[in-house]
Design goal:
The protein is built from ten helices and 13 strands. It is about 35% helix and about 25% strand. The chain is of the alpha/beta class. Strand 4, helix 3 and strand 5 form a beta-alpha-beta unit.
């Protein structure tokens, strides 16, 4: 394990989440496409998802998740030194989602705020970006948000994509800790971007088989690199929180790693794929349930369109 003095790691101070009020079950999707709960759940593990209703948006979700994180952490808005938002479904080209969150929360004017676009790996890119801003002197606390309104990007007549996604947001407040364990890995396969699909200003497309093959190789590789860099083994890890895309992807990754399935947290049955929101949403759910305890070592793995991937390992 590398010298702790060179780590400049992070502490997770607080988390929060927000999901829309409209629950859409698999059977509800029969209104749009030829499908069923059995067809969707057997292939993905998804049973329902949440879609934004009138008055709800990627912005209201981001603000809601951030507000809860601030409340739970007992942190005043003026203590936030920077904001980094991860999203692929922002309301405007300009201003950024981070700017609209900044305004809604009444944060200080002399702080950096920005969006990061790395699809479903975006929250981890945002975490590392926020850590860099804190290292550069951007204050004591960073607010990191993953928020998505994927429902507005969907072609509801395309069964291959409309059944997979949901809306939601998760937020985390982090602080620097120079003595904390911290490892990070990132990567991109831009050559796969067009073949795997993505979004333009028209609905999303996706080559499910290509994404599956990419994900089941990428997750184990990320985990193994993090373990090697940290000088630890899977026995030393308490939780692995992956991007919640498909239960088959997570199960295949568990088999490749040869580790207990219980270490991999899952909640996609209730939220589906919420892209950049999935990891922070899961973290807050775990935190609220008392599953995250001080001293636990956690690995986060994200993978998504681009194709991009990222992994972080740190202690709670």
């Amino acid at each position: 394990m590398r010298d702790k003095e060179t780590m400049n790691g992070i502490r997770l101070i607080a988390t929060g989440r927000a999901v829309p009020g409209r629950v859409v079950t698999n059977d509800d999707l029969r209104e749009y496409v030829d499908t069923s709960d059995e067809w969707i759940s057997s292939r993905t593990g998804i049973h329902q998802r949440c879609f934004c209703a009138e008055g709800e948006s990627v912005t209201t979700l981001a603000v809601g998740a951030a507000t809860k994180a601030l409340e739970r952490g007992g942190i005043a808005p003026e203590e936030i030194g920077c904001v980094v938002c991860a999203t692929s479904s922002q309301e405007y080209m300009m201003p950024s989602l981070a700017c609209t969150v900044h305004h809604a929360l009444g944060l200080a004017q002399d702080i950096p705020v920005m969006d990061v676009g790395a699809a479903c790996a975006g929250f981890l890119y945002a975490m590392e970006t926020a850590r860099g801003l804190l290292l550069g002197g951007a204050g004591r606390y960073a607010l990191v948000i993953g928020s998505e309104q994927m429902s507005k990007l969907l072609d509801m007549s395309d069964r291959s994509t409309c059944v997979l996604f949901g809306d939601g947001a998760g937020a985390a407040i982090i602080a620097l800790d120079k003595d904390a364990e911290y490892e990070a890995v990132f990567g991109t396969r831009g050559d796969m971007a067009l073949r795997a699909g993505g979004t333009t200003h028209t609905p999303m497309t996706m080559d499910g088989q290509a994404v599956f093959r990419f994900a089941v190789s990428t997750i184990p590789q990320c985990v193994q690199k993090l373990l090697a860099r940290g000088g630890v083994t899977m026995e030393d890890v308490d939780w692995v929180v992956c991007h919640q895309a498909n239960e088959r992807i997570l199960d295949a990754s568990v088999r490749r790693l040869g580790c207990p399935a219980e270490k991999f947290y899952k909640n996609l049955d209730r939220y589906a794929n919420t892209s950049a929101a999935s990891i922070p949403l899961a973290l807050d759910e775990m935190n609220e349930a008392g599953l995250l305890k001080q001293g636990q070592r956690v690995i986060l793995v994200g993978f998504g369109g681009g194709l991009t991937w990222a992994g972080l390992m740190f202690r709670i």
